[in-house]
């Protein structure tokens, strides 16, 4: 510690021969030097010039009296330092520690004493520089003149227990006052603490330990108190401020070695002790309100403390699961479920990116949590995701650009990925896709194909093969229609209906319940012509007409002029009746058209109770009742020439929703049966538990053990397998 030893060089003249010294030279010279040291210690001017004194020291050294000279110098310094202690001894030691003014005066006095000591030792050393550089340097046991001064100051001033305690009490009091927000003399603190550091172990042994204990108590109490009083964001803000202040304290006046234990102490008492409490009290709120900067601060502070990130992770996951569950399980919120899932996913992604520094652990746990909550309610999310995609791919959708649509589909795929029963999605997707294609309501072939390739990439080619088959059928039908048009031109009586047929491969498309309706003779004749044409090309195929998704364009004349209607086949059959008369009852229409009861009610409702009322219902009302009469509306007006009334075909009926779901379950039963038989055929004999775990591995949808048990029983009844005679938990394959 000789940072203040900035002595200056004086010229050294070398002797060639040693001059003869007068007898009492040594004594007189020492007298002179003693006087000079005394003058330095009393801060009065020295009567000799420094060059002369310097020379004198050199002379004495060359005459082998170095040892005596060092001892004498040490004695003079020691006497002076010993005398210093008296001014502190006289000091009243009875005061209380909080008598801060008195304490401050004491610190200033100690500091002055120390500063004087350093200044004096620098001057003394410069006079005795020759001694320091020769004799002292050659004797490794001797401390340098500067170090000797430090040793004396330590032994006689600072090692005095009363002085030391009072100094350290005073320093701690100043630091405490500064921590309470008062302004204190920081340069005084810096000077005193570097004094303690210079005096070797005093800082470590006497100051640092007490300082850290006090810091610990202060922050333990402060943490307890503020956790009660403050909201989480304010509390974390305060912790941050405290960490900054303590860091600054280290830079300004503490020794650098104190930094680690000091910061660790603040972190432990203000954060480590309260990790759970902070998160329980405030995390949900920060996440609900999307408080980005507070969340960033939470993450940064928690990352400083051992176990902090781990506990933040747990709470993060809980939050996602709880919040996500509220989106998914409430049937009243079904219409917004998918949009809310997308918004929630965007929100957590943003928090991970901005606040959690894209931390992998937070990303992975978020995915797991999404998967957990989205499958808490089986089937419905999958169905609604399919319908959401349908709404985006339908004509007339408001998503402005292809890019936007593409972005939405990508986001949907991320949510889709979390779903366990993807077969439900496929069933509804297929049903809606069929309508989009057959009723001509698809917004864009590119978007449709893009979605297909995403599904293929996610679920494999088997998943999308039927959907791709549907597109192929549509393409092939176009080619068939070109040939059919040519065929029709060669007919003797082409008729005045323009027929377009889509030929659907049974296995690819949803199953439609055949509905026998009464077409008019011209339509029937056309169907027969087409059948003859088609089977002429493809003998051995069987054609079955599907009426539900058929549609037509009708020309109509009203008082106001001509209109065209885009209508479903059922609407067509109803409207064509009004060529024969102006008014029909519900029962008459039912007899004539053969349309099934509930389907007919929907159809009449769309014609007489919707926006475009081509028919008038008597009596008025929004539901079609038995006995209602329908009258042709000759006064029909509409701003458009071509009017679409067949949106009804795109609407999903309750029956449709139920039957689509039923079919998925039916299909699952077959898949379970097939998997059991496959496994048993390979293994020949297998225990119940092993069979079940093997099934869990193979099946792509969630199943309950009870369901598997039922399928096993059913297969035993049907003689595909049998129970072991001695062990009912063991099964054998029956070839």
Automatic annotation (TrEMBL):
This is Cullin-4A. Residues 380-608 form the Cullin family profile domain. It comes from Anhinga anhinga (Anhinga). One of its GO terms (biological process) is rhythmic process. One of its GO terms (molecular function) is ubiquitin protein ligase binding. SUPFAM superfamilies: Cullin homology domain, Cullin repeat-like, Winged helix' DNA-binding domain. GO terms for cellular component: Cul4A-RING E3 ubiquitin ligase complex. Keywords: Biological rhythms, DNA damage, DNA repair, Host-virus interaction, Isopeptide bond, Phosphoprotein, Ubl conjugation, Ubl conjugation pathway. PROSITE patterns: CULLIN_1, CULLIN_2.
């Amino acid at each position: 510690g000789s940072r203040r030893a900035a002595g200056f060089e004086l010229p050294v003249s070398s002797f060639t021969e040693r001059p003869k010294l007068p007898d009492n030279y040594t004594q007189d010279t020492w007298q002179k030097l003693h006087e000079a040291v005394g003058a330095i210690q009393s801060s009065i001017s020295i009567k000799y010039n420094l060059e002369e004194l310097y020379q004198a020291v050199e002379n004495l050294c060359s005459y082998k009296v170095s040892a005596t000279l060092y001892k004498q110098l040490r004695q003079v310094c020691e006497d002076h330092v010993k005398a210093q202690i008296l001014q502190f001894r006289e000091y009243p030691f009875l005061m209380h520690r909080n008598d801060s003014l008195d304490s401050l005066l004491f610190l200033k006095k100690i500091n002055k004493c120390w500063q004087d000591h350093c200044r004096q030792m620098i001057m003394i050393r410069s006079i005795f520089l020759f001694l320091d550089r020769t004799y002292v340097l050659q004797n490794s046991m001797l401390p340098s003149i500067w170090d000797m001064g430090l040793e004396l100051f330590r032994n006689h001033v600072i090692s005095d227990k009363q002085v030391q305690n009072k100094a350290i009490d005073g320093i701690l009091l100043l630091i405490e006052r500064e921590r309470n927000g008062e302004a204190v003399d920081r340069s005084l603190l810096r000077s005193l603490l570097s004094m303690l550091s210079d005096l070797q172990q005093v800082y470590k042994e006497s100051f640092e330990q007490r300082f850290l204990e006090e810091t610990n108590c202060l922050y333990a109490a402060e943490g307890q108190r503020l956790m009660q009083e403050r909201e989480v964001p304010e509390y974390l803000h305060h912790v941050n401020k405290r960490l900054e202040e303590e860091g600054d304290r280290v830079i300004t006046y503490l020794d650098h070695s104190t930094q680690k234990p000091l910061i660790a102490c603040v972190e432990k008492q203000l954060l480590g002790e309260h990790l759970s409490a902070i998160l329980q009290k405030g995390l949900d709120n920060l996440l609900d309100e999307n408080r980005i900067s507070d969340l960033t601060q939470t993450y940064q502070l928690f990352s400083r403390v051992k176990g902090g990130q781990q506990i933040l992770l747990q709470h993060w996951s809980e939050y996602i699961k709880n919040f996500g569950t509220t989106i998914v399980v409430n049937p009243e919120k079904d219409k917004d479920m998918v949009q809310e899932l997308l918004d929630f996913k965007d929100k957590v992604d943003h928090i991970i990116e901005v606040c959690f520094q894209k931390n992998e652990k937070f990303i992975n746990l978020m995915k797991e949590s999404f998967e957990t909550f989205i499958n808490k309610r089986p089937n419905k999310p999958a169905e609604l995701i399919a319908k959401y995609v349908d709404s985006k791919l339908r004509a007339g959708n408001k998503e402005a650009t292809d890019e936007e649509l593409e972005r939405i589909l990508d986001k949907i795929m991320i949510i889709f990925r979390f779903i366990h029963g993807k077969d439900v999605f496929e069933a509804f997707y297929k049903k809606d896709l069929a309508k989009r294609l057959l009723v001509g309501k698809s917004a864009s072939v590119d978007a449709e194909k893009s979605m297909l390739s995403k599904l293929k990439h996610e679920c494999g080619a088997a998943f999308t093969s039927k959907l791709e088959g549907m597109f192929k059928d549509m393409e092939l039908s176009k080619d068939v229609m070109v040939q059919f048009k040519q065929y029709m031109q060669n007919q003797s009586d082409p008729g005045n209906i323009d027929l377009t047929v889509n030929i659907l491969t049974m296995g690819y498309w949803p199953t439609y319940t055949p509905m026998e309706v009464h077409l008019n003779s011209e339509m029937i004749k056309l169907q027969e012509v087409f059948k003859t044409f088609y089977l002429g090309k493809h003998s051995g195929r069987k054609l079955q007409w599907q009426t539900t998704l058929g549609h037509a364009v009708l020309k109509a004349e009203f008082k106001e002029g001509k209109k065209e209607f885009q209508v479903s086949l059922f609407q067509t059959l109803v409207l064509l009746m009004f060529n024969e008369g102006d008014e029909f009852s519900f029962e008459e229409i039912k007899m004539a058209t053969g349309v099934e009861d509930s389907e007919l009610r929907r159809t009449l409702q769309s014609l007489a109770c919707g926006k475009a009322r081509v028919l008038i219902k008597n009596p008025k009302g929004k539901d079609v009742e038995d006995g209602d009469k329908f009258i042709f509306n000759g006064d029909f007006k509409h701003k458009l020439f071509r009017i679409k009334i067949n949106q009804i075909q795109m609407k999903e009926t309750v029956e449709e929703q139920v039957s689509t779901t039923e079919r998925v379950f039916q299909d699952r039963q077959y898949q379970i049966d097939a998997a059991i038989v496959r496994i048993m055929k390979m293994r020949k004999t297998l225990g119940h538990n092993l069979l079940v775990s093997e099934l869990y591995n193979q099946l792509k949808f969630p199943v309950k053990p009870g369901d598997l048990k039922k399928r096993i029983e059913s297969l035993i009844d049907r003689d595909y397998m049998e129970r072991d005679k001695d062990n009912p938990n063991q099964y054998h394959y029956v070839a």
